[in-house]
Specification:
Order of helices and strands: EEHEE
Radius of gyration: 15 Å
Structural class: alpha/beta
Oligomer: single chain
Distance between the termini: 41 Å
Number of helices: 1
Shape: elongated
Strand content: 5-15%
Largest sheet: 2 strands, parallel
Length: about 70
């Protein structure tokens, strides 16, 4: 991507859980989703420092009614 020197995107998927405080029984999930957000922001900052034409959007979908905490 750096070599081709054209505008491009790396799209990462996180969750709203990566943007809000942790809820009961969701610590590991929230930490992993927050990690995606933090990594994407850090990578974007690094790429801005070298004037790369790479954008790093992060998708953060809302909550979906699943049985993820039923374990």
């Amino acid at each position: 991507m750096l070599k081709q020197d054209t505008e491009c995107h790396i799209v990462n998927t996180s969750s709203l859980a990566g943007l809000i405080p942790s809820t009961a029984k969701m610590a590991a999930y929230n930490v992993s989703k927050n990690g995606v957000v933090a990594f994407s922001e850090a990578l974007k900052a690094d790429l801005m420092g070298i004037k790369a034409k790479i954008n790093i959007p992060v998708l953060c979908p809302g909550f979906v009614n699943t049985r993820i905490v039923d374990c």
